[in-house]
């Protein structure tokens, strides 16, 4: 009979994932079809402005991913757009500033 330790397996996977992520971050060579969250958000923002399939293919090449992957991602992921003129600045009594603005999500499919 084999003893199963799910938490131990889960912990090993977590450490392995972190190690791979650190290796990617320290590497100067981008990994094909892999993007960090801020880069993905930037790509999705630029994709909103794409007018044609050629624009999307150019973006995909620029970011090192396949255009089919970009299309697949765009069906499930988007980035918010800020409505112009809705930003409100509030200064609290202690001097802390907060900015509030209305955003909208656009689901684009070409």
Automatic annotation (TrEMBL):
UniProt-annotated stretches for the region Disordered: 1-40
Biased composition (Basic and acidic residues): 1-26
Name recorded for this polypeptide: Uncharacterized protein
Species this protein is from: Sphagnurus paluster
């Amino acid at each position: 009979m084999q003893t199963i330790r799910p938490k131990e397996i889960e912990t090993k996977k977590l450490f392995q994932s972190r190690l791979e992520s650190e290796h990617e971050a320290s590497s100067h060579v981008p990994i094909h079809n892999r993007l960090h969250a801020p880069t993905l958000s930037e790509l999705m923002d630029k994709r909103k402005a794409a007018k044609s399939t050629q624009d999307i293919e150019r973006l995909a090449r620029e970011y090192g991913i396949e255009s089919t992957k970009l299309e697949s991602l765009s069906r499930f992921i988007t980035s918010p757009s800020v409505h112009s003129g809705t930003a409100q600045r509030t200064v609290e009594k202690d001097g802390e500033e907060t900015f509030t603005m209305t955003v909208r999500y656009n689901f684009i499919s070409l």
